[in-house]
Design a protein that fits this description.
Blueprint: H1 24-36, H2 38-47, H3 56-70, H4 77-86, H5 90-93, H6 95-105, H7 112-140, H8 146-162, H9 175-178, E1 187-189, E2 193-194, E3 198-203, H10 209-222, E4 224-225, E5 228-232, E6 238-242, H11 247-263, E7 273-277, H12 287-300, E8 304-308, H13 321-338, E9 341-347, H14 366-369, E10 373-379, H15 383-386, E11 395-399, E12 412-415, E13 421-423
Parallel strand pairs: 3-9, 3-10, 6-7, 6-8, 8-9
Antiparallel strand pairs: 1-2, 4-5, 10-11, 11-12, 12-13
Bound molecules: adenosine-5'-triphosphate (ATP).
Family: Belongs to the helicase family. DnaB subfamily.
InterPro entries: DNA_heli_DnaB-like_N_sf, DNA_helicase_DnaB-like_N, DNA_helicase_N/primase_C, P-loop_NTPase
GO molecular function: 5'-3' DNA helicase activity; ATP binding; DNA binding; hydrolase activity
């Protein structure tokens, strides 16, 4: 919660000469979101200072919502109108008609915090203008010491920057204390995948990345280690937003995987795995598509979110850094909302005339920096083992970025018996490091 800047009475700013920055639609949408969703209401109340509203009546309505929330009352247009009528504020804020209008004005309650950020941003602008006006007044003050005035101006700017949050900061820890804390991993699969991990899997076209991600998804939902089927894990909730394949194609791919889980006596339970296909892709730079993702994430609160492929997440130039950044913000918001791991797939670029193809994700370089883990599937060097024949399809699992933490991903996978991909140890693997120059299966 932010606190208001305490201005000194002598430095009261002059009135705004131009219309101060504000966004009436965002203000209405924040209030509307509070009326439609208790979750949005809680998030907005945690974030927004009532004084941030430019329109006085919006501040009064928001205060009414805050009072009702604090006493656990249900909040909708009818109950809020009654509450404001009881406090004698209803007529002043526009009557019951205006309260209903607020609920109708909001495009989606899922964006409540986003609207609140706009309101907060405009508030900060107004406070900045006030601060500037105060500094001008101070500059003309004849009695005060100039250095004192400069110090006060700096203190005021610092206060505006921190807006009361500096007092909430915990003391920064000494390294000797810092290393004493226990490392608490929040594993989804011990050693392999932790909640919050972001992973991008790459390969060339037809390289097997979709198949591997589907296998991982089914295994995680069934409680099977994706690369060690004899090891069982706690089943987790998986949400797949497939922005590439249509439903029939997807169904055909998942059926054998469900059968494999059944054969392992770890058949999927209802509610563990949700999937939605949008073969036309989504454009996460647009509010409607962003809300589409967030509604599903908020409703299902998955442990693992699989969304993509990357190039289907916005409609613009795939190399555009700003568009990629906007997409990553939405995915990060989904990840923070559900506290989930995020797995995505991306194509790797076409190779040059010499050397192996790069495995980095095609498109904006942001996708190289964004995930904690990036792996690519590359056919192994031994031609027989790399062939697309039963038992072959040997792939090297190559990290294309430095891992941000230790994880036990396999170095080699090949076409398996029970599952499409299984990890293996090449015949010429080094006894200690597991390194193999050929990846030979036979
Ligand atoms: N381990 C496997 N065993 C048998 N078939 C496989 C295996 N991996 C992939 N395939 C098959 O190879 C084809 C391409 O695989 P997949 O769709 O997973 O590749 P991809 O890298 O996602 O390709 P794209 O980027 O073109 O979608 C599919 O028909 C798939 O069924």
């Amino acid at each position: 919660m932010t606190t208001e800047i305490a201005w000194e009475p002598a430095l009261d700013p002059a009135p705004f000469e131009r219309t101060p920055p504000h966004d009436p639609v965002a203000e209405m949408s924040v209030l509307g979101a509070c009326l439609l969703s208790s979750e949005a209401c809680r998030a907005v109340l945690d974030f927004l200072n009532p004084a941030a509203f430019y329109e006085r009546r919006h501040e009064d309505i928001f205060n009414g919502i805050g009072r009702m929330h604090a006493t656990g009352q249900p909040i909708d247009p009818i109950t809020l109108a009654k509450h404001l009528a009881d406090s004698g504020d209803l007529a002043r804020v526009g009557g019951p008609g205006y309260i209903h209008q607020l609920a109708r004005a909001v495009p989606t309650a899922a964006n409540g915090e986003y609207y609140a950020e706009i309101v907060e941003d405009r508030y900060l602008r107004r406070e900045l203008i006030k601060l500037g006006t105060s500094v001008v007044t101070m500059g003309y003050a004849t009695d005060d010491d100039t250095y004192d005035l400069v110090e006060r101006a700096v203190a005021m700017a610092r206060e505006l920057r921190d807006r009361g949050q500096a007092t909430d900061d915990l003391p920064t820890e000494d390294l000797l204390d810092f290393v004493q804390h226990e490392d608490n991993y929040d594993w989804i699969v011990p050693g392999l995948l932790e909640r919050g991990d972001r992973l991008i899997l790459t390969a060339s076209e037809g390289g097997g990345k979709s198949t591997l991600l589907r296998q991982i998804a089914v295994c995680l939902a069934a409680g099977i280690h994706p690369f060690d089927p004899a090891t069982y894990t706690d089943p987790v909730r998986v949400l797949v937003l497939d922005c590439e394949n249509g439903e029939p194609a997807s169904r055909r791919k998942y059926r054998p995987l469900l059968n494999a889980a059944e054969r392992a006596k770890r058949g999927l339970r209802r509610g563990q795995f949700h999937i939605e296909c949008r073969p036309a892709g989504v454009d996460l730079t647009r509010p409607a598509d962003r809300a589409w993702v967030m509604r599903r994430v908020e409703r299902l609160m998955p442990d693992v979110l699989i969304v993509g492929p990357v190039y289907r997440l916005h409609a613009g130039n795939p190399n555009d850094e700003e568009l990629a950044r906007k997409v990553s913000v939405v995915i990060d918001e989904a990840r923070a909302t559900a506290g989930c791991a995020v797995l995505m797939e991306a194509h790797s670029p076409h190779g040059g005339p010499v050397g192996p193809r790069s495995l980095r994700p095609l498109g904006s370089s942001l996708w190289m920096r964004w995930p904690e883990f990036g792996f690519g599937l590359r056919p192994v060097e031994d031609e027989k083992s790399a062939a697309n024949e039963p038992g072959a399809r040997g792939r090297r699992v190559v990290p294309w970025r430095g891992m941000r933490d230790e994880r036990d991903w396999p170095q080699f996978v090949k076409q398996g018996q029970s599952w499409p991909w299984e990890s293996y140890r090449p015949v010429d693997a080094d006894q200690f490091t597991g390194y193999s120059a050929t990846g030979a299966i036979w």
